[in-house]
């Protein structure tokens, strides 16, 4: 009797194992969509389209980019979270999508921690602290002195949440008061700094780098723990007398929660391979991005760590979006 039970168990379990083994083997069999929560042309869109083109070549199926901008990435995030967890929809969140928004909003239309299955972190990018050339500060120390002497009236521009968080973290670490001037995007913020309307800016290195290299703004520091290869002569905030300052914005790939682990593993292998190609690193590096492709587990930890670290800055600064 026991022998018969064992034989029956084998008959039922072996076919199931065979089916499970083919889930990732046959993926993908139809077009794959990558949702980007920004308009075409920006850094996140560039990462998505670079990877999509290579995946399409590799898989011989269309891999398309679906731009869904608006709502501080909430629109695209909600759409991605509600998609079928079959691997055919991917999403490119940034740090504010998964690590900041839970501290900025009382209620979100998606779960930033449990609503997605991380695939891989793709790139990181430091912010740059820069000033108009007319500003007398030549270093972070000079700027701190200028901020203290201005009695809280020195203003800094920012065009995105990560840059504002960097500005508020700088204020707390330097023990200075500065006026935050928000803009709807990096472009308008930089335009006013270049025009002399606002003296200081915190901005992601990618959109700022052309203005830095042309001399239209003077860089004082980057916000990452290490110097950026794109601006090797510009010190970090930590080197400039603010130890422990390490703030970068990031872009990664996720799938809807519940996506089969074998498919996640296959996606991770394909995407990290593409990101590590010399031509990919060179293309994204020219935009101020550092490729940091890794495992789903590493990306999960990054999200959790940043949610804690950045959430503390947001709470201390009293930043709310609803």
Secondary structure elements and their pairing?
Elements lengths: L1 H21 L9 E5 L6 H17 L3 E5 L6 H8 L7 E3 L3 H10 L11 E16 L8 H10 L5 E4 L2 H14 L4 E4 L3 H9 L5 E5 H9 L4 E5 L25 E9 L4 H15 L2 H8 L4 E2 L4 H22 L5
Parallel strand pairs: 1-2, 1-3, 5-6, 5-7
Antiparallel strand pairs: 4-7, 4-8, 4-9, 4-10
Helix pairs in contact: 4-11
Description:
With 322 residues, the chain is an alpha/beta fold. The chain is 44% helix and 18% strand. The protein has helices at residues 2-22, 43-59, 74-81, 95-104, 140-149, 161-174, 186-194, 205-213, 261-275, 278-285, 296-317; strands at residues 32-36, 63-67, 89-91, 116-131, 155-158, 179-182, 200-204, 218-222, 248-256, 290-291. The strands form 2 sheets. Strands 4, 5, 6, 7, 8, 9 and 10 form a 7-stranded mixed sheet that branches. α4 packs parallel to α11. It is globular and about 65 Å long. 44% of the residues are buried. Mean pLDDT is 91; it is low at 14-20.
Brief characterization of the structure:
The protein has 322 residues and is α/β, with parallel strands linked by helices. The chain contains 11 helices and 10 strands.
* Number of helices in the DSSP assignment: 11
Q: Give the strand content.
A: 15-25%
Report the helical percentage: 40-55%
Gap between N and C termini: 66 Å
Mean pLDDT: 91
In angstroms, what is the radius of gyration? 22 Å
Structural class, by secondary structure, is alpha/beta
């Amino acid at each position: 009797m026991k022998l018969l039970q064992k034989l029956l168990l084998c008959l039922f379990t072996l076919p199931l194992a065979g089916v499970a083994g083919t889930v990732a083997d046959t993926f993908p069999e139809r077009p794959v969509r990558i949702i980007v929560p920004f308009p075409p042309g920006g850094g996140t869109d560039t990462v998505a389209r670079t990877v999509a083109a290579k995946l399409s070549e590799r898989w011989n199926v269309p891999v398309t980019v679906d731009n869904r901008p608006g709502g501080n990435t909430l629109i695209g995030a909600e759409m991605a979270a509600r998609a079928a967890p079959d691997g055919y929809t991917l999403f490119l969140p940034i740090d504010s999508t998964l690590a900041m928004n839970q501290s900025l909003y009382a209620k979100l239309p998606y779960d930033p921690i449990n609503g997605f299955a991380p695939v891989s972190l793709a790139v990181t990018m430091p912010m740059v602290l820069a000033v108009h050339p007319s500003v007398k500060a030549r270093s972070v120390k000079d700027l701190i002195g200028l901020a203290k002497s201005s009695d809280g009236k020195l203003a800094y521009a920012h065009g995105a949440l990560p840059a504002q968080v960097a500005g508020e973290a700088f204020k707390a670490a330097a023990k200075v008061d500065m006026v935050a001037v928000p803009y709807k995007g990096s472009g308008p913020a930089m335009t006013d700094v270049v025009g002399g309307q606002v003296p200081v800016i915190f901005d992601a290195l990618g959109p700022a780098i052309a203005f830095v290299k042309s001399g239209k703004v003077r860089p004082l520091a980057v916000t990452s723990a290490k110097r950026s290869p794109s601006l090797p002569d510009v010190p970090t905030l930590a080197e400039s007398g603010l130890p422990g300052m390490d703030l970068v914005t990031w872009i990664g790939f996720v799938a809807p929660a519940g996506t089969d682990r074998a498919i996640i593993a296959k996606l991770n292998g394909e995407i990290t391979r593409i990101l590590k190609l010399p031509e990919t690193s060179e293309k994204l590096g020219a935009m101020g991005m550092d490729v940091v492709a890794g495992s789903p587990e590493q990306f999960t930890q990054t999200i959790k760590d940043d949610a804690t670290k950045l959430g503390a800055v947001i709470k201390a600064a009293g930043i709310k979006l609803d």
